[in-house]
Design goal:
Fumarase C, Chain B, domain 1; Ribonucleotide Reductase Protein R1, domain 1; mainly alpha; 4 strands
Length: 471
């Protein structure tokens, strides 16, 4: 039998939890839970629904006859009505009150909101795991000097922990954004075909308080405190933009961190985790490619591009409803969640297993320290009676010559050149005493400690997601 295409997000990258959350079975069981909640609220508020009917519906949430659904949908070309039909077959005593007063978006949109909310909570746990690993890494290496880079050119020294704190701060911003989206996510409720609740005005004989109470009860059943104040047939698609923007933000942070590590691994300063029997290349057996970081960057690019779907969809929702959102959302939003899930699992693994090659870092830094320390050397030479302007010119001339020598593959001889200048007034040994790297890292250690102290309370007692996936 010929195999069919399967998205790599499900076959290779995403976690079991996220795959189950966005599965058809979870979605359709959630539809049935919504129908039970609607029937229960209608019964409690006086509509002709009995407790026996509610109980019968509740007893048949999980036994979905998918073959019955498939056959019925083939006939009626409507997925929700096919499920209503199949549910009625399973619960015949309640068949007549299923979906009473509702339109399709009652189950489709509310189910989406429930699934997205749960997905965001799960990703929040994964994000906390990344932040925890980075806090530990940054604290451990907060005082280890390393060469800084601006424009990817050697610059003022920083520390390994301080550089990790830049990544950590980005993730802290992502956590704020995820929390904002979760806290401000609203429920659609049961609002009718154009959001007017006209069907319920009829069912409840104009009692608006009962309509509001029905929606509050249904929302509360699924852990939502509020419904959207107004809606068309669907919930506002701006909510999808908020969600995908938050996932895109996570992708941006992961890409930045992974890309930095790729550059540093090229210089042998830091390595991502590498298994004992891992093969780096089918031809070049010596290779240790930064495969995980490369995968993070690859998936992150996809997610950042995917996030553009939601604002485009939100911008073209005509009046109360148009269906050109449906097919796009079926693909773009689940895949965004699966992709964010995979990226966070990878970056957590990387953050928890980074190898810091301290001798390489020290060697690289000391090679450039004579250039970095030139201002300090000049100040010391002035203290010894030198002329600042004359010393500046000596440093400029000797630096250019030393740089040219390095470009020819030779070692840096800047200190020897400066020591040979009588006007500089310092020996090479005296200059080396000024070159201690820790004197040039400023407040790096204190900055790391301050950031970690600020973030650590967010991690204590939090529901950290520790599920692993194949890497």
């Amino acid at each position: 039998m010929t195999q069919q295409y399967e998205t790599p997000l499900s076959s290779r990258y995403a976690s079991k939890y996220m795959l189950e959350l966005f599965s058809a079975d979870t979605r359709y069981r959630t539809w049935r839970k919504l129908w039970v909640a609607l029937a229960k609220a209608e019964m409690e508020l006086g509509l002709p629904v009995t407790q026996a009917q509610v109980d019968e519906l509740a007893a048949h949430i999980d036994d979905i006859d998918y073959e019955c659904v498939r056959q019925r949908e083939k006939e009626v070309r409507h997925d929700v009505m096919a499920h209503v039909y199949a549910y009625g077959k399973s619960a015949p005593g309640a068949a007549g009150i299923i979906h009473l007063g509702a339109t399709s978006c009652y189950v489709t949109d509310n189910a989406d909101l429930i699934i997205y909310r749960d997905g965001l909570r799960y990703l929040r746990g994964a994000l906390l795991g990344v932040m925890k690993s980075l806090c530990e890494f940054a604290e451990k290496y907060k005082d280890l000097p390393t060469l800084g880079y601006t424009h990817y050119q050697p610059a003022q020294p920083v520390t390994v922990g301080k550089r990790a704190s830049l990544w950590l701060q980005d993730f802290a911003a992502d956590l704020e954004e995820i929390d904002f989206v979760i806290d401000h996510l609203r429920f659609l409720g049961c609002r009718g075909t154009t959001g007017t609740e006209a069907s319920f005005m009829d069912l409840f004989e104009g009692d608006e308080a009962k309509i509001d109470e029905m929606n509050r009860r249904i929302a509360g059943t699924f852990g939502f405190e509020e419904c959207f104040a107004v809606s068309g047939q669907t919930y506002p698609r701006k909510a999808d933009s908020r969600i995908l923007n938050a996932l895109s933000a996570i992708a941006q942070s992961c890409y930045r961190m992974a890309n930095d590590i790729r550059l540093l691994q090229h210089d042998r300063q830091i390595d991502e985790p590498f298994e004992e029997n891992q093969i780096g290349s089918s031809a070049m057996a010596y290779k240790r490619n930064p495969m995980r970081c490369e995968r993070v960057c690859s998936l992150a690019r996809y997610l950042m591009a995917d996030a553009a779907n939601a604002p485009m969809t939100a911008s073209v929702q005509w009046m109360e409803r148009t269906l050109d959102d449906s097919a796009n959302r079926r693909i773009s939003i689940p895949e965004a969640f699966l992709c964010a899930d995979a990226i966070l699992k990878l970056i957590r693994n990387i953050a928890g297993g980074l190898r810091v090659n301290e001798k390489v870092i020290d060697k690289t830094l000391r090679e450039y320290m004579p250039f970095i320390a030139t201002e300090n050397l000049m100040m010391e030479a002035v203290k010894r009676g030198g002329n600042r302007q004359q010393l500046h010119e000596i440093i400029r001339r000797c630096s250019m010559a030393a740089t040219e020598r390095m470009k020819q593959g030779e070692s840096c001889d800047l200190l020897a050149r400066l020591a040979a200048e009588k006007e500089f007034g310092m020996t090479e040994e005296e200059m080396r005493a000024v070159l201690e790297p820790s004197k040039y890292t400023g407040r790096c250690g204190a900055q790391v400690s301050a950031l970690v102290e600020k973030i650590r309370p967010l991690l204590e007692g939090a529901a950290e997601n520790t599920e692993t996936i194949d890497l």
